[in-house]
Amino acid sequence: xxxxxxxxxxxxxxxxxxxxxxxxxxxxxxxxxxxxxxxxxxxxxxxxxxxxxxxxxxxxxxxxxxxxxxxxxxxxxxxxxxxxxxxxxxxxxxxxxxxxxxxxxxxxxxxxxxxxxxxxxxxxxxxxxxxxxxxxxxxxxxxxxxxxxxxxxxxxxxxxxxxxxxxxxxxxxxxxxxxxxxxxxxxxxxxxxxxxxxxxxxxxxxxxxxxxxxxxxxxxxxxxxxxxxxxxxxxxxxxxxxxxxxxxxxxxxxxxxxxxxxxxxxxxxxxxxxxxxxxxxxxxxxxxxxxxxxxxxxxxxxxxxxxxxxxxxxxxxxxxxxxxxxxxxxxxxxxxxxxxxx
Length: 342
Known about the structure:
Layout: H1 4-12, E1 18-25, H2 29-34, E2 46-47, E3 70-71, H3 80-88, H4 104-107, E4 112-121, E5 127-136, H5 139-142, H6 151-155, E6 174-181, E7 187-196, E8 202-210, E9 214-216, E10 222-225, E11 228-229, E12 234-240, E13 249-257, E14 261-271, E15 287-289, E16 293-297, E17 313-314, E18 318-320, H7 328-341
Antiparallel strand pairs: 1-4, 2-3, 4-5, 6-7, 7-14, 8-13, 8-16, 9-14, 10-11, 10-14, 12-13, 15-18, 16-17
């Protein structure tokens, strides 16, 4: 059954397509449906990439202006509170079918897990709700004596009754990692390593969404293979700079991934100096940066918005250390003033 609260929002704001994913690893009304802090998503966390997120289903031509909004919340923690409302949206809940194997104790102990809620429109412009759950588990970590790959050993449950559901899996020959280098609180370098293990050259779309607290130096963008700079690997660059205290920056580029090679992509960044009141309560922990996205292209050229792209590869979120004031000083002043007045 389609959630009533979600359907009301889609009708009220004429939403043609929506995707909500919650991922984690050893790495508003909609918020109520997923128990997530979606109410904190505002202008500073919102971008509108041009090519990275095309519409999954074409919509009929109308006079209305359709805008895509992309928002990330890298500091959100995924836990069992997110799974409970997810199970309530399934036809058989967790009582039968493959959904009965969704054991929260096993799922959230996995090396990586992710759940998704996708709202699409079919050819008849009818709303379709698609729910997904993915997990990556290490059988050796659960059983040191033997390598077990059965459902009961991985999920701790057995499927007793049938409830028709569909699933799909896909393999990818591309591996991508991203790190933030530099120990200072003023400058740093974002380093991206992409490995193409395939037997064919691949064109991939790279998307970087950076909040205004970290400013990208676009002129330092450099690509290399085995330590040798390559100017022919990065093209079709689209960069929308950030606005201080407001808009996040968007960097999109098409990368050429040679056959069986490792590509290094680097660019320098500048860390902003925040105002006193802009720091979060746990300022010493640092700020979370959204993950970069790599999308293999099925064509050699930039596709139109309604074309199908390859599977998206999301890299890990980053933690950036900004210059932080000594928040203990106001407390010390209050204590000294209190003693003097007393």
